[in-house]
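HOLO CASE FILE
Compound: heme C
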Amino acid sequence: MSDFTSNFWSIYVSAITVVSILACALLLWFSGKAKAMTASDNTTGHVWDGDLREMNNPLPRWWVWLFVITIVFGFVYLALYPGLGTYGGKLGWTSSGQHKDEVAKGDAAVAPLYAKFSAMKVEDVSRDPQAKAIGERLFMNNCSQCHGSDAHGGKGFPNLTDADWLHGGTPEKIKETLTLGRMGNMPPMAAAVGTADDVKNVANYVLSLSKAPHDSVRAELGKSKFAACAACHGNDGKGNQALGAPNLTDDIWLHGFGENAILAMVNSGKINQMPAQADKLTEAQIHVLASYVWGLSNNAVAK
Ligand code: HEC
Ligand code: HEC
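Model generated. C-alpha cells follow.
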C-alpha cells in the first residue's frame, strides 16, 4: 500500500473492509428481527417431494454466537495486525520483520559453529567433516549453477577440483576470489598479431605449447608473434595469476580446445566474470566455503 502516493486507496480499502464487516453484523441483526410470512403451522408454505416442508425456525443459538465471535475477531485482528489500508496494526507485525527475526534466530544458532571454524586455518577446516558438509551445501546453493554440482566446471566456468588456477589456489587467493569476485579480460588481439595468417600461426604455436596436435611449420612462424601475448600469458605461456591469464601449456582449456577455439579467443577476446559473494554470504560462510573449495583439489587422497 505504501507504493501509492496518495491516501485514497488506503481509505478506500479500509472503508470497504469495515463496511463489509458491519454489513454482516447488520444482516445478522436483521435476520433475527424480521418475521417471515409463515402459515399458522410455522412453515413457509414451501413443499417438496410431496411432504417435505420448509420450517421457519430461528437460527440456532450456537450458530449466531459463532457469527458474533467471528465479527468481533475480525475487528480485534484489524486493530492488532496490518489489514486496514496503510494502518500497521498495534503489534507492529510485518512479514519481512518475522522473516528477519527467524533468520537472526537461525544465524544465532549456528554462530558458535561458524565461530569455531573461523578461528581455524583453512587447511584444518577443509578436513573437518561437519565443515565439509556445510561447505558442500553452501556450494550447492550458491556455486553449482555455474561450476557444476561436482565443481568440475564447464566451458567458460573453471574446474575447481584440479590444480590449475586462473587467479591462484592458496587459501588467501581463493578467499579473495569469493569475496571480491574476479574479472578475466582478454582483449581482441588479432590486430596486434597481424594478418589472418599470422593469427593462425600463433594459434598453432599455442597448441604446440601443450604438445597438442598442430601444424609445426605454422607454429614455428607464429612463435615470434606470441610476443603480443607474452605480456599477459608470459614468455613461456605459463600464464599470470595476477592478471587471471591462464597457463597455455597445461592442456587444460577453459574456452575450448583446438585451433578454432584459440582463433576465436584471439579474434574476439573474452570477458569472463566470477560474481563477488561479499554481499550474499557472511565472512564466516566464505571462510567455510573457501576451505571446501581448497579441499577439493588438495584433499583428494584423504577422501
Ligand atoms: C554466475 C556464475 C558463477 C557463480 C554463481 C560462481 N562462479 Fe566462480 N567463477 C565463475 C567464472 C566465470 C569464473 C572464471 C573467472 C575468470 O575467467 O577469470 C569463476 C572463477 C572462480 C574461481 C577461481 C578459479 C581459478 O582458477 O582461479 C573460484 C575459486 C570460484 N569461481 C569459486 C566459486 C564459488 C565457491 C562459488 C560459490 C560461492 C562461485 N564460484 C560462484 C562463475 C561463477
Ligand atoms: C591483456 C592480457 C592478455 C593478452 C595480451 C592476451 N591474453 Fe589470452 N587471455 C587473457 C585472459 C585474462 C584470459 C582468460 C579469460 C577468462 O578469464 O576467461 C585469456 C585466455 C586465453 C585463452 C583461452 C585459454 C583457455 O584455457 O581456454 C587463449 C587460448 C589465449 N588467451 C590466447 C592468447 C593469445 C594467443 C594471445 C596473443 C595473441 C593472448 N591470449 C593475449 C589475457 C590476455
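CASE NOTES: The longest strand covers residues 43-48. Strands lie at 43-48, 52-55, 182-186, 270-274.
CLOSED: yes
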